[in-house]
Design goal:
Elements lengths: L22 E3 L4 E3 L4 H7 L7 E3 L20 E3 L4 E3 L1 H5 L7 E3 H111 L3 H5 L5 H5 L12 E6 L3 E6 L2 E7 L7 E5 L5 E12 L5 E7 L3 E6 L3 E6 L4 E6 L8 E4 L5 E5 L4 E6 L2 E7 L4 E8 L5 E7 L5 E7 L2 E6 L16 E5 L5 E5 L4 E5 L5 E5 L12 E6 L5 E5 L4 E5 L5 E5 L7 E6 L5 E5 L4 E8 L1
Antiparallel strand pairs: 1-2, 1-3, 4-5, 4-6, 7-8, 8-9, 9-10, 11-34, 12-13, 13-14, 14-15, 16-17, 17-18, 18-19, 20-21, 21-22, 22-23, 24-25, 25-26, 26-27, 28-29, 29-30, 30-31, 32-33, 33-34
């Protein structure tokens, strides 16, 4: 069936051929050209035909599905179906009906309105929603990719942590082995030294027994009691490596006083963590193990390397590596115009120093200096911290020293800047003094804000957790924090320059005690060696105090 034209240029063709239509059969609802009119009438001569000009065509009534030879001239509004006269007298009796032409026109208008709404409103909404969903897909893909990268970074970090645990165990085993064998060899040496003497005594006694000289026999002095008193056996207990495994939940290792465990949190948290457990506690009184003369005066910075060595630097271009006996093992001449602003070491033991004048952070590898970081123009690097993940924390200040911040670098890339709190206020105070920085085991970033005479601790996102102003320690002079370190127990140790002491805090800022009995005159540089001992650089004397503060 042909339909009315919707555009002026549209040509409607005859339903029986391809010529343009001119006529229309209202009864059959067929479009016809002039030539096909007679053909249509002849082919359906048994039916009545109402042939009219095409422009005068009328809507054709459909045949009733239920009553033969009946046309549906109305539409039941209640049932929404076309109905004939018999339908209206029968099953649709009493229903509200509408004439078919009127219903046709209404439906056409409804169809037009619906089509317009779909075309102009709904389709654009779907298209916009499709674009939004595509954007969400892109964001989700990027987030999961970033999560995958972060997972790999954590994998690397965890492997480093496990390596550190077993490297420490290896060191302890080797140290115990050396001490144990040295004690046994010393005992063996005492025994071996006695045997030749006893053999010689036996030989001499046999000669005397054959002698006829009275004096040789009467002058004989017995060594029998001495020989009977064999060197006392030493009681050197062999250590044992204790392990305890709860499948899928915990693995612990213990060697002497060193204990570590890997624990898995409940599955709902979807996280696992490495937990360090130590049997060590704070000593009632810290002990000074030794005093190391460094020859560096003034002495500003100390960075431990392993057990018995540390890099030290002061007010010259040279950084020296000294051992616990005060011997200089190595020296590095820096690129600094005056002297390095700070020194530290990487987890691999490589020396890193900051050159404030040239705005660089440098690393010494195989005796050669390489530039790791160049800070932005107008900003100068000061204190440094190499984190467990391999990042470098750099405290820096503007040329006029009015602003200070801490920046986390991953290689050359800036990963994080810490300078403003949630209210947009500066976290650290501008001024003359440097901002020391260290990362704690829980990811907190601890800093000595000497311009504000406070210790400021922020979490890994840069949100301020707490500030410590020295008040709980009740010292005579004003609190003057110049350097800061953390230990394996996540305790925070702060050098108080004015009060010749160290403040020890827990990771939440709770004051624990002061170390003030070890002759710490003007403490400035702080570092912790692999045995957990503190190395404290004394600025004016140029000495380093090695202090045991844990048991």
């Amino acid at each position: 069936m042909a339909t009315p034209t919707t555009q002026a240029q549209e040509v409607i063709t005859c339903d029986l051929c391809t010529k343009p239509t001119q006529k229309f059969c209202n009864n059959c609802q067929v479009s016809l050209c002039v030539e096909c009119v007679s053909k249509h009438v002849e082919n359906l001569d048994s039916l009545p035909h109402d042939i009219v000009p095409f422009k005068d065509r009328k809507v054709g009534f459909p045949e009733c599905e239920f009553h033969t030879n009946q046309r549906c001239e109305a539409h039941c509004q209640q049932c929404d179906v076309p109905v004939c006269l018999k339908c209206m007298l029968g099953p649709h009796n009493g229903h509200k009906v509408k004439d078919m032409p009127e219903s046709f026109s209404d439906k056409k208008r409804e169809l037009e309105k619906e089509t317009k709404e779909i075309e102009s409103t709904i389709i654009p909404l779907y298209q916009n929603k499709n674009e939004e969903t595509e954007s969400k897909i892109s964001i989700a893909r990027a987030e999961f990719d970033e999560m995958e990268t972060e997972k790999e970074n954590h994998r690397k970090f965890w492997h480093q942590e496990v390596d550190t645990i077993f490297n420490t165990l290896g060191f302890l085993i080797q140290s115990m082995k050396e001490n144990h064998l040295a004690a046994l060899k010393s005992h063996q040496s005492k025994i071996n030294n006695c045997i030749p003497d006893m053999i010689q005594t036996v030989q001499q006694n046999k000669i005397i027994m054959k002698s006829r000289k009275v004096s040789e026999v009467t002058n004989y002095k017995s060594n029998l009691e001495e020989y009977r008193n064999m060197p006392t056996d030493i009681d050197v207990k062999l250590p044992s490596l204790k392990t305890n495994t709860v499948q899928g939940r915990e693995l612990s290792l213990e060697l002497g006083e060193y204990k570590v465990s890997l624990t898995q949190a409940p599955p709902s948290s979807l996280t696992e963590k490495v937990t360090y457990l130590s049997l060590q506690k704070l000593l009632e009184q810290a002990k000074s193990i030794t005093t190391i003369p460094t020859g560096v005066n003034p002495l500003y910075h100390v960075a431990c390397v392993g057990v018995d060595e540390a890099w030290v630097s002061g007010k010259d271009k040279t950084i020296r590596r000294v051992d616990i006996h005060g011997s200089v093992r190595d020296t590095v001449t820096t690129t600094c115009k005056d002297w390095p602003n700070h020194i530290t070491v990487t987890r691999q033991g490589e020396l890193v120093y900051s050159d404030g004048h040239n705005r660089t952070v440098n690393i010494v590898r195989h005796g050669r200096t390489e530039t790791l970081i160049t800070t932005p123009r107008g900003w100068h690097p000061e204190k440094l911290c190499c984190t467990k993940s391999g990042d470098i924390l750099v405290s820096m200040c503007t040329t006029d020293k009015s602003q200070r911040k801490i920046v986390r670098y991953q290689g050359h890339t800036v990963k994080q800047e810490i300078d403003r709190d949630e209210d947009g206020e500066p976290i650290y105070k501008g001024g003359e003094y440097l901002l020391c920085v260290v990362e704690n085991n829980n990811g907190d970033i601890c800093a000595t804000d000497n311009n504000a005479d406070t210790v400021v601790v922020v979490d890994k996102s840069g949100r301020v957790r707490f500030r410590y102003d020295g008040t709980p320690a009740r010292r005579k002079e004003s609190f003057n924090p110049v350097d800061i370190v953390t230990d394996s127990m996540s305790q925070i140790i702060v050098a108080d320059f004015n009060n010749a002491c160290l403040h020890i805090l827990d990771q939440n800022g709770q004051f624990l005690r002061c170390v003030d009995n070890c002759g710490l005159d003007k403490p400035h540089g702080l570092s912790v060696d692999s045995e957990g001992r503190l190395w404290v650089g004394l600025a004016l004397s140029g000495e380093v105090k090695v202090i045991q503060y844990m048991k």
